[in-house]
Amino acid sequence: MSTQQQQPETQEAPEDPEMKGAESPVDEKEKEGGDIDQQTTPEPELEGETVHIKVFRYDPEVEGKQEPRFDDFHVPFKKGMTVLDAVMYARDTYDSSLTFRHSCRQAVCGSDAFFVNGKQRLGCKTQIADLEQPIRIEPLPHQEVVKDLVVDMDHFYDQMHTVEPYFQNEDTPDASDLEEQRQSRENREKVKMSTRCIWCGACMSSCNIAAGDNEYLGPAAINKAYKFAMDDREPEDVKEHRLRILEQEHGVWRCQTQFSCTEVCPKDIPLTEHIQELKREAVKKNLKFW
């Protein structure tokens, strides 16, 4: 059963029952003849500058870890260290059960969006040196927590696919006459920023409207629709079809222009501006002069 990460009890990792006692959990397991679980290793004495991180912990499948809490870790600081680097060190050195998503480590895959010191950020892009300590690392708000820093992204992906994020043009010529469907430089510049979205979910997590309206398309999905709706290579009827999707009750008109999505976007996409432009396009489509 998943849970929201609200008001967990603060607990330091050394106080975990698995890390106390004369005998280690591994020894106890061996005496009982049971399987050896992944273990939490006590922190060694570190020399030099260290970083204090407080990491959200929750595991619905392990008794004693089903109550949300924070574990404290101290990791050696290195110039250029990111939040993802610190969390990976804590996992590899102290607790192999610490769970989070990451992949490219170059701010391209969008896997490692966390809630760091009260703001949605990419772990691999956020410099430790720019943050106040202790650094509080939590899963994205307004999402169901699966385990530790991992949230369920299924609803986010469903909303992204609702806007039909693929090129549609029924006027494609026959294969024998097929040519590259070129886009003008001016049109490319217009939609360029919208193409930078990496589906990290940070904007959706920061949106107060999305938090209260589960059917709201959300800034990421609307931005994806903007990319195609503003592409001159699609016919006018396809653009009208996209605008009908966007101007529904839970579409662009639910946005209250709070700019929270724009502020947290790790790729600096002007999400709020794109939503407002789509509102204007929807109005123009429905204007009649007679």
Rg calc? 24 Å
Any idea of the CATH class of the largest domain?
A: Alpha Beta
In the predicted model, the low-confidence regions spanning at least 5 consecutive residues are 9-38
Portion of residues in beta strands equals 5-15%
Assembly state = single chain
Q: What characteristic shape results from the CA principal axes?
A: elongated
Helix content class: 25-40%
Number of domains: 2
Layout: helices, strands, pairs:
Blueprint: E1 9-10, H1 25-32, E2 50-57, E3 69-76, H2 83-93, E4 113-116, E5 119-122, E6 135-138, E7 145-147, E8 150-151, H3 154-162, H4 185-191, H5 202-206, H6 208-212, H7 219-229, H8 236-246, H9 260-264, H10 271-286
Parallel strand pairs: 1-3, 2-6
Antiparallel strand pairs: 2-3, 4-5, 4-6, 7-8
Helix pairs in contact: 3-7, 7-8, 7-10, 8-10
What do these coordinates show?
With 290 residues, the protein is an alpha/beta fold. It has two domains: 5-151, Ubiquitin-like (UB roll); 154-166 and 186-284, Fumarate Reductase Iron-sulfur Protein, Chain B, domain 2 (Orthogonal Bundle), CATH 1.10.1060.10. It is 30% helix and 12% strand. The chain contains ten helices and eight strands. The strands form two sheets. A six-stranded mixed sheet has the order 1-3-2-6-4-5. The protein has a two-stranded antiparallel ribbon with strand order 7-8. A hairpin with a 2-residue loop joins strand 7 and strand 8 (150-151). Helix 3 (154-162) runs parallel beside helix 7 and helix 7 runs antiparallel to helix 8. The chain is elongated. Mean pLDDT is 85; it is low at 9-38.
Keywords:
8 strands; elongated; six-stranded mixed β-sheet; two-stranded antiparallel sheet; alpha/beta; Ubiquitin-like (UB roll)
